[in-house]
Amino acid sequence: MTDRPDIGDMMPDVAMETPAGGSVKPSDFKGKPLVMFFYPKDDTPGCTTENKDFTALKGEFDAAGVALLGISKDPPKKHEKFIAKHDLAAPLASDKAADSGEDGIAEALGIWVEKNMYGKKYMGMERSTFLVAADGTIAQVWRKVKVKGHAEEVLAAAKAL
């Protein structure tokens, strides 16, 4: 595992795919705070709840001048279906490099980790959130996130920036 960037470090500027077919990277948001929330998989119970929670608060993030970006390794087409099915408002991006063996943003942040479920080991996304300041530095980090109340906690931290 690579060193894990932390508060005060620059957010790695790695491109991710968008459902619309383009790409997005953290530097695209320079000059404005950014919340990057990483989740394991579209359309699973915890990930759906987390995305719905951020969607419910998107207006408040917008009013505070804070951009949102949800990221998983799911392909852009799967993100499109997930967004449509749950009427999600927070933009999503795909860190497909995480699943391809290339170094994507998840590897750069040290959140592409070995997991263990029912005795089976596999690589997966650690549910994590990064609050990036307007200058591109990491202002706050939440690792191994518990979904309940998380979006509200992130909003409070973003408003305090």
Automatic annotation (TrEMBL):
Description of how the protein assembles with itself and partners: Monomer.
Species per Swiss-Prot/TrEMBL record: Aurantiacibacter marinus
A cellular component annotation (GO) from this entry: cytoplasm
SUPFAM superfamilies attached to this UniProt entry: Thioredoxin-like
List of catalytic residues: 47 (cysteine sulfenic acid (-soh) intermediate)
Its biological purpose: Thiol-specific peroxidase that catalyzes the reduction of hydrogen peroxide and organic hydroperoxides to water and alcohols, respectively. Plays a role in cell protection against oxidative stress by detoxifying peroxides and as sensor of hydrogen peroxide-mediated signaling events.
Protein name per UniProt: thioredoxin-dependent peroxiredoxin
All copies of domain Thioredoxin, residue ranges: 5-161
Residues covered by region (Disordered): 1-25
Keyword Acyltransferase attached: no
Reaction catalyzed: a hydroperoxide + [thioredoxin]-dithiol = an alcohol + [thioredoxin]-disulfide + H2O
First and last residue of the signal peptide: none
GO biological process: cell redox homeostasis; cellular response to oxidative stress
Keyword Methyltransferase: no
Keyword field: Antioxidant, Disulfide bond, Oxidoreductase, Peroxidase, Redox-active center
GO molecular function annotation: thioredoxin peroxidase activity
Similarity-based family: Belongs to the peroxiredoxin family. BCP/PrxQ subfamily.
InterPro entries referenced in this protein's UniProt entry, alphabetically: AhpC/TSA, Peroxiredoxin_AhpC-typ, Peroxiredoxin_BCP/PrxQ, Thioredoxin-like_sf, Thioredoxin_domain
Entry EC number(s): 1.11.1.24
